[in-house]
Amino acid sequence: MSTTSQSAPAGRTAGARRGLGERWSALPRPVKVVLWVALALLFYALPLLNPPLLSTPDSDFGSVMFLVAAYGLVALGLNIVLGYAGLLDLGYVGFFAVGAYTVAVVGTMSGRVPFVVLLVLAVTVSTASGLLLGWPTLRVRGDYLAIVTLGFGEIIRLVALNSEFLNQARGFTGIPRPPSIALFEVPQLQWDGWVSYVDFGNTSTFLEFGLLDGIPYYWLALTVIILVLIGDVLLQDSRVGRAWEATREDEEAAELNGVPTFRFKLLAFAMGAFIGGLSGGLFASRQGAINPETFIIQLSILFLAAVVVGGQGNRWGVLVGAAVVAYLPERFREFAEFRVLVFGLLLLLLANFRPQGVLPPRRARRAKRVNEQLQTLEGTEEGARA
Fold it and tell me: Shortest CA distance to 274 belongs to which of 116, 82, 99?
């Protein structure tokens, strides 16, 4: 009798936890496509809607959303390195800086280079830097790898600070922006309390990349994120993704089973550097000016925090983590110097009550569910013996 009463709630709890995933899997493919498109349109429209609870009254909401998108793109790249391959990279800001400086140097030397070519050059140089860094350093593991990558991020900043070719502390100004087409204007919503109205005097021009309006840059970055997400899904479900998972869980066992772990770790480093350089190039074009102090080592810590807070290994989780670390400091800007303290306290609470991240990967959820089932089974057996 006691066995039935104790096992039934556990079964209902497990079923409730699996219910959402099962219901989503049971949906027809056209319904899933419609839901994904509706969600994407909502995110595209978010800076135009200016929701009262989400809007940043002390900062331009469109620019904040672009910063969130840039951090999200970086987090997706770092998630490949840390979440998929299990490589602790503390100097990821170096790849971000390489992409930004490539766009700045080539773009200011010749204003005739198309923006797409600038981005291609940025990801090429950053990927090459990832290969050059990974080839000698990926033979070490753990703390040693973290120290080497930390030094790489700081070396990139110091080279930019002391190199006349990179304009030293002056950095670069007048960085080229994406070409503007200016198709049509989209009005924004304004809110009077909880009542909204369309403000035709405050508009954003679609595909006009100027200095003041950050919304078109956000749309561009969001489009790039969607493309990277598609590639991320295909990559993780491929042989490469399975090799990364095997390497992360047990490198020696993966080697014994014929997985060339060094080659796949180097590929993860290169893919991470590719996405980091792409995000850096977009960031430089939006800012219009960069200098070595733009890429301080604390930025690497924020990138790492985005992945850890969101749930390393979960692509959707790291996007949520990037939104947390990029958005909350701007949302709490009204607290002036106390906003960083508030941000830190929120991260501390999250680390204590959700140590595996906001959205932990499926393997972590499975392990937790199995542990709970084992504990329930042990309790049932003890109750039966009693």
Answer: 99
DSSP H/E element including 212: none
The rounded distance, in Å, linking the Cα atoms of 105 and 109 is 6
Q: Can you tell me whether residue 140 is helix, strand or coil?
A: coil
pLDDT tens by residue, 142-173? 778 888 899 999 999 999 999 999 999 999 99
How many CA within 13 A on the CB side of residue 36? Answer: 11
pTM reported for the whole predicted model? 0.84
C-alpha–C-alpha distance, residues 47 and 324, integer Å: 17
Residue reference for tokens 């049971």: 26
259, 243 in Cβ contact below 8 A? Answer: yes
| β-pairing verdict for 172-173 and 185-192 | unpaired
Q: Give the integer Cα–Cα distance in Å for 79 and 68.
A: 16
What sign does the dihedral 343-348-349-355 (CA atoms) show?
Answer: positive
Q: Does domain 43-355 have CATH number 2.60.120?
A: no
Residue 223, both tokens: 């489009």
